[in-house]
Each structure stands twice: as C-alpha cells, then as structure tokens.
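chain below, 59 aa
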Amino acid sequence: MVAVGAHYGWWIAPVLLILATCTIIILVAWDKVAEKYHQVYLYAISMGFVLSTTMLGKY
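prediction:
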C-alpha cells in the first residue's frame, strides 16, 4: 500500500492543486458569468460528475 501511494503520489498533489485552483477561479468568476452561462456550467459539472462516477464504477 505504501508503494502504491509513493508510485502515484507524484500526480495526486498537482491534480489536487489544479482542482483547487479551478474551483477558486469558478467561484470568483461565478458572479460575473452566472447570468449568461449558468446552464453551461451546470451541464459541465453534471457531465463531469457522471463521467467520474462511471470511471470509478469500472475499477
């Protein structure tokens, strides 16, 4: 288990950092674009959720 964590640890941290950055950007930009693009955001978020759960379900 430790070996697996060490093997995959190099990409987990950058991915978490990117996700956190994207979340902050979306939250900051949300007020500016919510009126125009909230449907697009909701669609993208729901599709990402479906894809991630589908991928997790396969393993």
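The radius of gyration is 15 Å. The helical segments are 2-58.
thats it, cya
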